[in-house]
Amino acid sequence: MLMRTDPFRELDRLAQQMMGPGTWSRPSAMPMDAYREGDEYVVAFDLPGVSADAIDIDVERNMLTVKAERRPTARAGDVQMELSERPLGAFSRQIVLADTLDTERIEADYEAGVLTLRIPIAERAKPRKISIGVGSDRKEISG
């Protein structure tokens, strides 16, 4: 479902620091974890300082898109910023979901700066036992 290692992660982080905050046309990536828990996949995105109404989640076919925007906080007029390292701007991440996931029943929860999506495995993809019928209505074809 996902690439396990990313050899260019540190390079991307450095490039993001040098190019500044993301915009809607060039959003920054957001860190995430993905794992299977029982009969569902869980994807958790780090979005500290982002309000829930600034998060947009879309699914089209098997493409999951999460967009968020961290806006500057309102400050009094006499505040002089000394240091600003927390990134502002737009963040986005797209994930191609497997056909075995039920995209109709995705659940989203946002708590303590972490967006957690729970995507159930489709019933058709779960292992099932197939019974074997013993036929008593055998017909013989003679020719």
Present the secondary structure layout.
Blueprint: H1 9-19, E1 32-37, E2 40-46, E3 55-60, E4 63-70, E5 89-96, E6 107-111, E7 114-120
Classify the helix fraction into a percent range.
Answer: under 10%
Number of strands: 7
Order of helices and strands: HEEEEEEE
Instruction: Detail the poorly predicted runs.
Output: none
Note the gap between the termini: 54 Å
**Biggest sheet, in brief?**
4 strands, antiparallel
Radius of gyration: 23 Å
Mean pLDDT: 81
Overall spatial form: elongated
Share in β-strands: 25-35%
Strand order of the largest sheet: 1-2-7-6
Briefly note the structural class of the backbone: mainly beta
The total of helices stands at: 1
Describe the structure.
The chain has 143 residues and is mostly beta strands. 8% of the residues lie in helices and 33% in strands. The strands form two sheets. A four-stranded antiparallel sheet has the order 1-2-7-6, with no helix packed on it. It has a three-stranded antiparallel sheet with strand order 3-4-5, with no helix packed on it. A hairpin with a 2-residue loop joins β1 and β2. It is elongated, with a radius of gyration of 23 Å.
Short description:
The chain is mainly β.
Question: Features of this protein?
Answer:
single chain, 143 residues, mainly beta, four-stranded antiparallel β-sheet, three-stranded antiparallel β-sheet
